[in-house]
Amino acid sequence: MKNKKGNVTAIAIIIVIVITTTAVITWLVAAKTQVSVQQMITQLTAPAQPITLENQLSVQSTPTSNDTGWKLISGVIGDSCSGVVYDGRVTVKGWYVMDTDYVEKEWMLKIADSDMNKFPEAFFGGVKDAAHNANQKLKLVDAPHELQKELRESTKENPKQITLKGYYLYCEGFPVVSIFPATESFKQYIKK
């Protein structure tokens, strides 16, 4: 009992360290998952559109073109978790970069800033948000060996021009693109 004051001090220090560590971890997780203020304002100020069965059916049954020339052939606009598939034709400048964002390393198609506005709105999660789309990487699924080689040799300063015809986005992972029409490349994702 002689050293009771020392034990109380040690326990108090340990409690402070645990609380501080918990606060720092919570702050780091919150900072990583936090939505940008501009994106929140855009979403809050956007006019609300009622969701009705009629609206959902018309969106799903009528292919929709947006200002980029892509036509929705499957999924629901604004809901990437429905597995949106677009068909179109767009020529962009890009190059391959080695992606290490996930466990496996893979070559990803990086798109020039000047060509980012050529993709469907779904790529931007409903808003053209630079923070959300900062990496500008797409997964090119069907590039022939020669094109893959050319893209690996290309750089930001010397990009390769490539024509894309299919686009698929699911709520997890990178958008997937194809040099062939979506009806051929992404037929397994097209819901009828």
Describe the structure.
There is one protein chain. This protein is α+β, with helices and mostly antiparallel strands and 192 residues long. The chain has 5 helices and 6 strands. Strands 2-3-4-6-5 form a 5-stranded mixed β-barrel. The chain is elongated, with a radius of gyration of 23 Å.
Short description:
This protein is of the alpha+beta class. 32% of the residues lie in helices and 22% in strands.
Topology record:
Elements: H1 4-33, H2 37-45, H3 53-61, E1 71-74, E2 84-99, E3 106-111, E4 137-140, H4 145-153, E5 160-169, E6 176-178, H5 182-185
Parallel strand pairs: 4-6
Antiparallel strand pairs: 1-2, 2-3, 2-5, 3-4, 5-6
For this entry, give a set of tags.
about 190 residues; alpha+beta; 2 domains; 5-stranded mixed beta barrel; 6 strands
Strand order of the largest sheet: 2-3-4-6-5
Structural class determined from secondary elements: alpha+beta
Question: What's the total number of strands?
Answer: 6
C-alpha-based Rg, rounded: 23 Å
Biggest sheet architecture:
5 strands, mixed, barrel
Mean pLDDT: 74
